[in-house]
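Bumping with the actual sequence this time:
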Amino acid sequence: MKRILSFILLSVLASGMCACNLKNDLSRIPDDSAGKKLAVIFPGMGYTKDRPLLYHSREILEKEGYEIRYIEWNDLPKNMFTEPACTQAAEQLDDMDLDGYEDIIFVSKSIGTVASSTYVAEHDLDIRQIWYTPLLEAFDACGGEVENGSIIAFIGTDDERSNVSQVRIKANTLEIELHMYEDCGHSLERDDDAGTQEVLDDVMKSTSEYIALNN
């Protein structure tokens, strides 16, 4: 009888040790998303990924170790383009394995800011965003609430495609960090090369600092 009891006790102890070891082994399984970083770039309708703002921001992101993906527009109508842009962006983003990344940044220009903001809000994502010359609809898409520090935006005082005064009000209401540049239009450019370069340098400095916050 004693031998039987001893055998049962040893079996119970052994099974407990196996369960404990299994638990420890499972805790050591690496998280595939750990350390992986992704940047998705949303261009404007006429402002392509190779134009200065997106080209230089991509360089910064690559140096910080981000994988780069692009949203591509397919025959967006010249008028009433907001909804088609959001739909096209959503379809492409749904095909990306966003759950496989620990850190994600959406970088967008013009109409791209609306698509970026809409997707983040609709999917309740914890994603930082960089907006170049945002349209007013990008602020409206946020839904009235923005996590502190999740968005940084840049716009010119002479932006002919956005409502600059309303953008300033919306950014203040939502506590979005907004950088404004005098005498700049929708491409954040001035009439002279030196002035344009000065603006670009300042935008990229702020962009670089923002990207580095989580690194």
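The tokens above came from a reply further down the thread. The chain has a mean pLDDT of 87.
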